[in-house]
Design brief:
The protein is mainly α. It has one domain. Helices cover 67% and strands 0% of the residues. The chain has three helices and no strands. Helix 1 runs antiparallel to helix 3. 2% of the residues are buried. The model has no long low-confidence stretch (mean pLDDT 84).
């Protein structure tokens, strides 16, 4: 569970490194993504932010049921 903003930044950087091979986007990559969206990274960002929001703003008795 992601409980702090520092953990959120860490997980986003780790996802970017594991899926794209670098911690930062280059200017070329940023320009390319303006025309061709990177759906996988957008999904991972939304996934991590949702996990952070649920763990921060939920009751202590709330659990995900799988």
């Amino acid at each position: 569970m992601i409980t702090t903003k520092a953990e959120l930044k860490y997980y986003l950087a780790a996802d970017r490194m594991m899926n794209r091979g670098s911690f930062r986007r280059s200017v070329r990559t940023a320009l390319k993504e303006m025309f061709i969206p990177d759906w996988i990274m957008q999904y991972l960002i939304v996934l991590r932010k949702t996990e952070y929001a649920v763990s921060r703003h939920s009751n202590t008795q709330f659990y995900w049921k799988m």
